[in-house]
Structures are given as structure tokens and as C-alpha cells.
């Protein structure tokens, strides 16, 4: 008798917003898409030839299975950290195919089925899936906004229970753009609970500040895993390479066990690992272009919305702008009317579990002309 796993409890039907967008596109309507978060689509000058050349230069394709990944690749990552901040030893770096996979691996390391992981809200919607696929429960702690975002550390403390196995921090968070501050880190790392710090957007600061933490897995008082990868920091999600930096008092015991998990899959591919030193160089150029675009687009958003009845929330980093709209209609009505009447796609705030309505989330890596036109249409719709 066929029976599927209870981990897959989601509805498999298309949501109404995606269905609307598909219908519009099928009927020949061109939509301005402000949700593009894929750098390989968003940049016409994307360095495909340079990346292909870096792969073509890989002469040695012998397979040497190593649970933590190719040592040269890990040395190159370690050197990149050392060049702009605290360093991390190659021995404390483990490669995976993606940050998403890194989460899965760490949930396997830290949790039994039914155990709990604390995750910020609002945040990135994939956590629900990543956790459920490992039979782990998500418990939310709150981020609050009062002109800038911060962790509600009381809410975090209250949510810690018998089965809490890790605290996830997204630094800076997607989509709120809030960086982890030194004072917050002192509290989060004081509970004795392992921390998973998702640092994929740290290379994209939007506001100057000296108290942002950029690498949690360094001199940490608690077992800490910092996640990063080519996907965001080098603008190369298609290359499928990410890493986990491990630090803290139990790092050695954690590494032994992590080695066994990673040895079971060996999922990071050889060509990308061998080409990594060169990919990181190419990625530095791409990162500079992305940072320039996200900063300009955010400035454009503030300029275009200035004096209107909607505004972008303060963002400290990352690739998203959250625009607050007057609650004269529901968020759903706003987002669908922007598609139907203004031919413009934004992500709704509820997609990220924003605590109230109404918000439209725009990707800051959208090509600038599309971004500016989309925001002008939003302003007109709201006036
Ligand atoms: C906060 C955050 N972490 C991780 C990821 C996924 O990265 P990867 O492509 O390495 O799985 C994303 C993708 O949008 C993200 O927003």
C-alpha cells in the first residue's frame, strides 16, 4: 500500500498569487518583476565566460573523497575571511553544496525527530521546509521594528524549552536586512544553546555601523556554526558551493560527527572545489557590482517614495526592501491589484511572516530601470 511520509504535509496546489501571475503572462501581458533574486538573471554583464574559463582550467579531476571538502578550497575560503576580518582555520571549515544543505546537515547533527529549533520571524520562508524535512519543529522568536529592527531577546528567552537544540540567527536577516549587533550576540550566545548563524548576506551592508557582527563563529563562547557560500557572497547560486565555519567549546566533538554525516553524502562537486580560488576572485568583482546595485536601488526607493504615503523600512543589509503601504486595503488586495492594474510583481509581507499588514517586498538586485519603474507604479497605486 502506497503511503507518503508525513514530513510532506504541504498543499501541492499553486498559491493564488502565482496562479494570477501565470494567467497574466499566458494572456500576453508583460509584468515588471521586482522579485528577481537570482543574480544570474539580474545582471546582463554576468561573468559567465570567466566562470567557464575557471572551470576549464581545472586540470586535475581525480576524485578524492574528503568529508569536509578539498583542502585547497578550504584554504582559499580561510584566506578570504582573513583578508577582511577574523580568520577561521581551514580545519574548522566544512563544504556543502548549498546553505540549505548546510542547515539540513546541522539539523541532523543537533536534533532528534521532534526536537526544536528557534528561528526568527519575520524571516526566510524556507526554514519551515528545511526543518520539516528533518522531522524537526520550528519555534519562532520575534524581531521587532521601531525605526530599525532588533531581536526581541525576551521573546527568544521565553521560547527556549526542554527540546530546544539550536538558535538560528540570520545575519543580516532576509528580508528585514537587520544585522546582529554586539549586544544582541552577547545575549544570544549566553544561553549555552548551539547557534547557527546564516551569514550569506554579510557582504552587503546598506548602513554604516561599527557594532555589526560579521562572523559569529570566532572566539564564540558557545558552539557556533556560521554559514556562507557562493550563492550570495559571490553571486553564484548555480555553482552550488557553501560552507560551515565551526567554532566554540565543543567544536572538536561536533566536527567528528559532522564528518560522518558529510562523508555519507559527499555532495560538493570536485570541479567547483578545485576552481574555488579563482571563483572567489571572480566573485569579488560580482559582489562589488551587486553591492553597488543594492545601494543605488535602495536610494532610488527612498527618493521615489519620498513625500508619498508609503515608505521603505530601515534596512542595514541584504538584498530586500520592505515597503510599508497604507492599510486602506489588505496586503493580499494590494499585491494582487499591483499585478492586475499596474502589471508589477512584489512579494507580499505575509510570505515572510511579517507581523502586520500591509507590506510589499522588492528585491534590491532588480535591474535599476525595472526597479525604479516598479516603485513609481507602486507610488501611483498608493496615491
Ligand atoms: C537567508 C538565506 N539563507 C540561505 C539562502 C540559500 O542559499 P543557498 O543557495 O546557498 O542554499 C537564502 C536564499 O535566498 C537566504 O535568503
| Major beta sheet summary | 8 strands, mixed
Strand content: 15-25%
Q: Order of strands side by side in the largest beta sheet?
A: 2-9-8-7-6-3-4-5
Using the CA coordinates, give the radius of gyration. 21 Å
- Average pLDDT confidence is 97
Order of helices and strands: HEHHHEHEHEEHEHEEHEHHEEHEEEH
- Extract low-pLDDT stretches: none
Count the beta strands. Answer: 14
Distance between the termini: 58 Å
> What count of helical segments does DSSP give?
13
The proportion of residues forming helix, as a percent range, comes to: 25-40%
Which ligands does the model contain, each kind named once? pyridoxal-5'-phosphate
* Class by alpha and beta content: alpha/beta
Q: What overall geometry do the principal axes of the alpha carbons give?
A: globular
Would you kindly provide a written description of the structure presented here, covering whatever features stand out?
The protein has 383 residues and is of the alpha/beta class. Helix content is 40%, strand content 16%. The chain is built from 13 helices and 14 strands. The protein has helices spanning 16-26, 39-42, 48-56, 71-84, 99-110, 126-132, 153-159, 182-188, 230-233, 251-265, 270-305, 331-342, 368-382; strands spanning 32-33, 93-96, 116-121, 137-145, 149-151, 164-170, 195-198, 224-229, 242-247, 311-312, 320-324, 344-345, 347-348, 359-363. Strands 2-9-8-7-6-3-4-5 form an 8-stranded mixed β-sheet, with helices on both faces. Strands 10-11-14-13 form a 4-stranded antiparallel β-sheet, covered by helices on one side. Helix 3 (48-56) packs antiparallel against helix 11, helix 5 crosses helix 10 (251-265) and helix 11 runs parallel beside helix 13. 44% of the residues are buried. Bound molecules: pyridoxal-5'-phosphate. The site of pyridoxal-5'-phosphate has 12 residues, from helix 5.
Amino acid at each position: 500500500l502506497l503511503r507518503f511520509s508525513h514530513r510532506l504535509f504541504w498543499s501541492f496546489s499553486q498559491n493564488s498569487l502565482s496562479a494570477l501571475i501565470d494567467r497574466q503572462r499566458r494572456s500576453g501581458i508583460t509584468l515588471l518583476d521586482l522579485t528577481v533574486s537570482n543574480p544570474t538573471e539580474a545582471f546582463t554583464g554576468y561573468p559567465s565566460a570567466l566562470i567557464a574559463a575557471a572551470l576549464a582550467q581545472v586540470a586535475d579531476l581525480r576524485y578524492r573523497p574528503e568529508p569536509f571538502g578539498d583542502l585547497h578550497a578550504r584554504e582559499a575560503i580561510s584566506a578570504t575571511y582573513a583578508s577582511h576580518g577574523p580568520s577561521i582555520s581551514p580545519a574548522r571549515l566544512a563544504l556543502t553544496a548549498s546553505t540549505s544543505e548546510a542547515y539540513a546537515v546541522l539539523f541532523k547533527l543537533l536534533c532528534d525527530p521532534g526536537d526544536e529549533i528557534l528561528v526568527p520571524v519575520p524571516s526566510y520562508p524556507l526554514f519551515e521546509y528545511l526543518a520539516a524535512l528533518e522531522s524537526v519543529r520550528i519555534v519562532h522568536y520575534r524581531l521587532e521594528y521601531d525605526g530599525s529592527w532588533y531581536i526581541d531577546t525576551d521573546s527568544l528567552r521565553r521560547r527556549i524549552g526542554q527540546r530546544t537544540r539550536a538558535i538560528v540567527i540570520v545575519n543580516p536577516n532576509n528580508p528585514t536586512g537587520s544585522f546582529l549587533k554586539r549586544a544582541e550576540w552577547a545575549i544570544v550566545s549566553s544561553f549555552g544553546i548551539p547557534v547557527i548563524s546564516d551569514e550569506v548576506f554579510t557582504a552587503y551592508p546598506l548602513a554604516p555601523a561599527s557594532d555589526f557582527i560579521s562572523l559569529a563563529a570566532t572566539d564564540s563562547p558557545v558552539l557556533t556554526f556560521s554559514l556562507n557560500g557562493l550563492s550570495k557572497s559571490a553571486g553564484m547560486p548555480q555553482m552550488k558551493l557553501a560552507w560551515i565555519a565551526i567554532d566554540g567549546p565543543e567544536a572538536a566533538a561536533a566536527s567528528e560527527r559532522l564528518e560522518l554525516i558529510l562523508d555519507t553524502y559527499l555532495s560538493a562537486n570536485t570541479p567547483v572545489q578545485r576552481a574555488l580560488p579563482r571563483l572567489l576572485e571572480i566573485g569579488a568583482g560580482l559582489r562589488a557590482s551587486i553591492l553597488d546595485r543594492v545601494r543605488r536601488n535602495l536610494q532610488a526607493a527612498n527618493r521615489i517614495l519620498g513625500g508619498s504615503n508609503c515608505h521603505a523600512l530601515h534596512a542595514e543589509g541584504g538584498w530586500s526592501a520592505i515597503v510599508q503601504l497604507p492599510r486602506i486595503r489588505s496586503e493580499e488586495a494590494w499585491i494582487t491589484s499591483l499585478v492586475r492594474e499596474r502589471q508589477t510583481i512584489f512579494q507580499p509581507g505575509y510570505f515572510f511572516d511579517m507581523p502586520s499588514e500591509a507590506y510589499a517586498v522588492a528585491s534590491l538586485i532588480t535591474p535599476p530601470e525595472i526597479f525604479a519603474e516598479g516603485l513609481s507604479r507602486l507610488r501611483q497605486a498608493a496615491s
